[in-house]
Amino acid sequence: MNYFVSLRKKLEVKVAAELLDQVRETIRLKHLSRRTEEAYIRWIHKFILFHNKRYPSSMGEAEIRSFFSSLRRHKFVSSSTQNQVSF
């Protein structure tokens, strides 16, 4: 593997880990439950993977819509969640 590709992958992993750490810290400061934290982290992880491991700050409304549309289309969320994510 090319040195720069390897270095880029390592940097992306580090940046993603830092993002998830920031989310965890914010959730804990707000005294949300551990299960809420786990759910948020899981959804963020799914969002990043859905968009081929792109960093969330490089994405916008179109990517969010695409992710939610995919969830609705494939029925990976409950009907109540689908209703909350209406466009």
Walk me through what this model shows.
- This protein has 87 residues and is mainly alpha-helical.
- It has a single domain (8-81), classed as Tyrosine recombinase, N-terminal domain (DNA polymerase, domain 1, Orthogonal Bundle), CATH 1.10.150.
- Helix content is 74%, strand content 0%.
- The protein is flat and about 45 Å long.
- The N and C termini lie far apart (42 Å).
- The mean pLDDT is 80.
Outline of this structure?
The chain is 74% helix and 0% strand. The protein has helices at 3-29, 34-50, 61-74, 79-84.
Element layout with pairings:
Blueprint lengths: L2 H27 L4 H17 L10 H14 L4 H6 L3
Helix pairs in contact: 1-2
Give me the count of strands. 0
Shape: flat
Number of helices: 4
Order of helices and strands: HHHH
CATH architecture: Orthogonal Bundle
Helix content: over 70%
Strand % is under 5%
CATH class, named: Mainly Alpha
Oligomeric state, counting identical vs distinct chains: single chain
Task: Extract low-pLDDT stretches.
Answer: none
Domain module count: 1
Mean pLDDT: 80
Within CATH, the superfamily carries the name Tyrosine recombinase, N-terminal domain
> How far is the first residue's CA from the last residue's CA?
42 Å
Remind me, CATH topology? DNA polymerase, domain 1
Name the structural class: mainly alpha
Largest sheet: none
Radius of gyration: 15 Å
